Amino acid sequence: MLDLEPVIGLEIHAQLLTRTKLFCACPTEFGAEPNSNICEVCSGQPGALPRMNGKALELAATAGLALGSRVNSRSLFSRKNYFYPDLPNGFQTSQLDPPICEGGSLSFRTADGGTKSARLNRVHLEDDAGKCVHDEKRGVSLVDLNRAGTPLIEIVTEPDLSSSYEAMEFLKKLHALLVFLKVTEGRMEEGEFRCDVNISLRPRGSSQLGVRGEIKNLNSFKFVGQAIEYEIVRQTALYERGEPVLQETLHFDSRKGETRSLRSKEEAHDYRYFPQPDLPPVVVPEATIEALRRGLPESPERARERLVALGLREAQIALLLERVEFLEYFDQALAQGGESGKIASLMEELFLPQCQKEGISPLEAPMKPAFLASLAKILASGAVGRRKIQELFGELYLSGRDPAALLEAKGASQISDEGALREIVAGVIAKFPQDARKYAAGEEKVLSFLVGKVMKESGGRANPQKAAELLKAELAPRGV
Ligand code: ADP
Ligand code: MG
Ligand code: ZN
After folding, report:
1. pLDDT digits (tens, 9 = 90+) for 322-372
2. Ligand 1 mutation target, pool 5, 7, 11, most atoms within 8 A of CB
3. Distance in angstroms (rounded) separating the CA atoms of residues 128 and 384
4. What are the sequence ranges of the domains in the chain?
């Protein structure tokens, strides 16, 4: 038996979160009528001239900075030549040398609970191709160019990963970071984050690289894991039979769980890269790079430590770390005072679902962080019950006013006043004497029934804890 170890390097494509394409003003929206979001530039008409999207540049640099890469103040676009029916230019506009970002690294958790870091080779900008749609019924293939020209970054790692577990952990971490930073939406089913896996085997401990297979375009973490496991078995069998591993490009069939050869692997010179003459060098002034660096939010790791120290639940922490604006909103509400746990639970249960329903970013919602903080205080004081807040939340959210005033106006505040409550409690005891006697005799479960009646009599405004206390005091078996 040969003792072989896997060597894995990844090339990740992430669609940048811009409204328009990389070199024209066509929208990048997903799911539009085929060929409705195209123009002379992205459909490759002769003589049409590309113009660089500044936002894409900013996002690529932001990704690089967050990954510890060096941002080049001057980089170049090249033409990478292919012939594909969904590539109208006959070339992809990509960066060879120098790319926008070089170097960097990302650390992730290993199976034994430790951490490991994988080095990055580069982060570069490029445009996406269109899509071929195969209509099997009619026996034709159609071309949809809506996606053509969509901005991507490609992140290339060094061959530093050594198992399917490591590759998946690395990718999950990278995906979460880029989504958190709003560099990409990262919807994997829509291909906004996809990955090519390069994998070879070598004798354990060797420093030389073996011949690799490259599995193209995997769009789920699970498929990445499965494809790697399959390749390890396939390549090991070749080595054991003394047969050569071919350098080839592979496709992963997720239904069969197998890889299959697409073509022998091309080398860089096969693409006849040459400088794209229609685009000037990409220039990012040092001052811009510095401003982007200063504008980087706290890293998710750092933020996590802070949230853990606040005593938030894991589910709440994970939610707040999904998007930088969730965390920003939370921090702004927290700065207004109010208990972190109540703010987080209001965000988790009511506020963020509402924002999502309306497709609005939290910081643009009519309910400002200060209002949510005020609501958290009201909740903590017990002045208004959780149920009532839930019921009125839609209105509170939309009002664009401090919820305290609105709740007051609605008479929603709880009756905590002892005198008023005592009266209602006495009324309930008089109305349900049998149940009252049962409780007094020690049948504890009757209490919730009686509290329910007090709530009903008060039109839902009684403070349930106070009501229970008063009932207990009235009905407690006296003396022993
Ligand atoms: P190409 O652009 O032709 O695919 P690169 O040299 O840019 O080739 O490498 C692409 C990816 O493949 C990188 O992530 C790199 O780390 C990885 N890689 C290169 N050689 C090997 C190898 N022998 N085994 C595993 N991964 C490799
Ligand atoms: Mg490659
Ligand atoms: Zn266009």
Report:
1. 999 999 999 999 999 889 999 999 999 999 999 999 899 999 999 999 999
2. 11
3. 53
4. 4-283, 297-409, 418-479
